[in-house]
Amino acid sequence: MHVIYVVLKQDSAFPSQVLAYLEHLSERFPLRVTLLLGGSGSDTPQALAPFANHPNRAVKRFRLSPLFAVTDRLNMRAMAHALSQMALDHRTVIHTRGEMAGHLVIGALHRLEHTTRRVVVDVRGAYREEIRDFWPTPRLIREAKLFRLSRLYGSIRSAGAITTVSQPLQTYLEQQYDLPSTTTTVIPCVAGPGFRHNPERRAIMRKHLGISETEPVILFSTGGEDQWQCLDTITRFLGRLGARGIVLARKKLDHPAILSRFVPYAEVPGYLDAADIGLLWRDDHVVNRVASPIKFGEYLCSGLPVLANGTVLSVRQRIVSDDVGQVLSDPDDLTTTRFQQLLAMKRTRIAAVGEKHYAMQSVVQHYHTLYETLLSEG
Questions:
Q1: Is residue 59 domain-shared with residue 72, that is, in the same domain?
Q2: In the chain, N or C: fewer CB atoms in 10 Å?
Q3: Is the pLDDT of residue 239 over 70?
């Protein structure tokens, strides 16, 4: 099997959601992996050299022009040229990260007169509402991007499989864009391999941070300052509880009870081990309702009970079905009794739930099974 994984642009989740996934996939199964990465150059970025330094992995580049409707043909030609150099055959699966990448790949395959039935398209969120309500771009640019969305979803209907990060997102796509649920599979965002319940690391981190073993710590972690992350609400929440707080975010928070830091991704698992409760509190917006927050899986794999306001429907469903935290509608609803119940939850049990649903080996197995299914169907 040859898996070609297409990424148009690198984002903050690229190391944990793409590189770590492809590394694990190529090490677990006897297959070849090619990362096809968009950009303005043709050389492999230096940061990807360790990834490419493996007998079963390669990195290829293709020239990506700005993503507008008028450049679709140009980008499809570039994509077709890149794919034509890879000897596509009946054992090749093309996996695209995002509907835009899927749209360009399918257009390129039509140019090459090649089947699209072995294409997997990942759809990772409510793209339309994210553009409309959160993108800080001029209105005309937003309107142009919104106008072409229907073309994108019309294009990816011909893919062999579409994956969504949550069941609510699957329902949303079926209702809004008439994407058939029969070709849609739910596979959540993955927690990186470093997120594991580790009591020894917890003791070391607590000592390093000056936190006693009996002092309860609530942690909130985010890779950005997105408006739907509710950082100001979290600040008030942590201050009211009288507990210590750790906030890992780009935005610096000034509060005497909060340790506010932005640390390298490789250091995040240690901070999760040092905490007792993971906090996930978001605005009630469709972008959040259909999401699969990476941090939720990281919390669970680290054995952290999760305190959430339930606006993310997949998070609410998992907390309730597996008893891995509590759902509140307001910070004032957290009584002392409920707080102690959270602290008393067994971290080993929570970590087992996280490993089953969000750990790397679980997600890799789901995708590999999907690849094999597509190859068997021709």
A1: yes
A2: C
A3: no
Residues 151 and 64 in one domain: yes
Here the tokens at position 70 are 């008028």
Q: What is the pLDDT of residues 313-352, one digit of tens each?
A: 999 999 999 999 999 988 778 888 888 999 999 999 999 9
Contact 357, 299 (CB under 8 A): no
pLDDT in tens, 45-65: 778 888 998 999 999 999 999
Question: Do residues 233 and 180 both lie within one domain?
Answer: no
Find the domain containing 227 and state its range. 199-357
Residues 301 and 366 placed together within one structural domain of the fold: no
The single-letter code of the amino acid at 78 is A
Q: Please return the burial class of 62, using the count of CB atoms within 10 Å of its CB with bins 0-12, 13-18 and 19+.
A: buried
Query: Can you give the pTM of this predicted structure?
Result: 0.91
d(CA 254, CA 235): 9
**Residues 28, 46: one domain?**
yes
Q: What is the CATH number of the domain that holds 264?
A: 3.40.50.2000
Residue 57, both tokens: 């992995």
Backbone angles phi, psi at 247, to 5 degrees: -120, 115
Considering just the CA atoms, what is the radius of gyration of the chain in Å? Answer: 21
Q: Report DSSP letters for 69-129, one per residue.
A: GGGHHHHHHHHHHHHHTT---TTEEEEEESHHHHHHHHHHHHHTT--STTEEEEE-S-HHH
> Strands, E, within the chain: which ranges?
2-7, 32-39, 57-63, 92-97, 119-123, 161-164, 184-186, 217-221, 244-248, 258-261, 277-280, 306-308, 325-327
State the average pLDDT over residues 308-312: 92
pLDDT digits (tens, 9 = 90+) for 270-281: 999 999 999 998
Tell me phi and psi for residue 261, to 5 degrees: -145, 155
**Do 252 and 344 have their domain in common?**
yes
Do residues 341 and 364 share a domain?
no
3-state secondary structure of 349: helix
For residues 287 and 229, what is the distance between their CA atoms, to the nearest angstrom? 11
Domain total for the chain?
2
